[in-house]
Amino acid sequence: MSREMVRQGGRSARIQKAVHEASRQLLDEMDRTRITVPMIAERAGVTPSTIYRRWGTLTELMADVAVERLRPAAAPEDTGSTAGDLESFVLQYAEEMSSPVGRALLRDVIAEAQDDDATIRCCQYTHDHLAEISARATARGEPPLDVAGVLDRTIAPICYHILFGDREVTPDYCRTLLTGAGGPG
Amino acid sequence: MSREMVRQGGRSARIQKAVHEASRQLLDEMDRTRITVPMIAERAGVTPSTIYRRWGTLTELMADVAVERLRPAAAPEDTGSTAGDLESFVLQYAEEMSSPVGRALLRDVIAEAQDDDATIRCCQYTHDHLAEISARATARGEPPLDVAGVLDRTIAPICYHILFGDREVTPDYCRTLLTGAGGPG
DNA sequence: ACCTTAACGCAATTTATTTGCATTAAGGCG
DNA sequence: CGCCTTAATGCAAATAAATTGCGTTAAGGT
Which domain covers residue B143, as residue numbers? Predict the structure, then answer.
């Protein structure tokens, strides 16, 4: 019987919110490697076993929190032109992900290998933002964006250098990547 | 006095080798998330505290092992032409990193945020390989490779899609990336 | 209002991590 | 080579984290 498989209301939701909030606070207060499940549980007013049962491991919980945090609050800025929208989005993306917190979020999302749900969703956000910019372009009569191309030629290098730390990801570098990356699809 | 800061000989080296070997074996035998420090210690014939004192955490040990494993055994194949060398290297790179083991190695290297040493070294291997191909090119009289460009336009997208799992990294896809990515620097 | 059961809290148990102290063995020096 | 200093290890105790059994609470459908 499939009467009810997952409960989403009331208590369950409150606990998820409390645990997420506690995790976010701790991430801002101390180094990510010093955070433990019991620590989060105490601040959230929950027993550790609840967290272990719902999320499994600290890694999975952190990935869950990271995805929430990476979910953009608003649609990308509308600057009036596709090139402007794209530059605005990419520069903001690079700045957010370059910060110590952003880097940690990326790492946490990627570290979760069990179900690729977290990483896929994280990717989806970026994809959706680019698709939104592309939709605006066509609404203006401009050619649509090559979303996959921007991912490959702009987003991917940015993530690569942030994750591997082999070079600074500056606004100038991002603009260089954008040159020739925003063509029509 | 700087008489001796780090000991590298005899016993120390044997233990490092034994621990690495045990880690590699376990990585091939079971899921990476089920591996524990005591498990590795037992197989390596070492007490857990030794591992904790030398590597700190399981994450750091795994990153250390991953870097060793990612270090290429030989120089890239010499196919006679720069384009051929590049394609050969990139296809092999993509194949290795796409496998479950390769993915796990990449994740482990990236997860180690403490000192960027692991990620930097991992990057360096790729960079050195490309530089070798470029050196061969100039030796043949061909124009040198734009190493940074290949990293940005070919390696980065491959790593991105492997890490985020948002698409298959097929040989055909790699060849598409190579088109227009291997220009002179 | 009632019933079923997913999700939780609590406490006991198991496992992992840390730490103090004794012991071993690099590696420099006479 | 033998001696000396001390980094690195082993062992065991102490601490902390992760797991598990079981009773309780409260979603959510009837």
Answer: 70-178
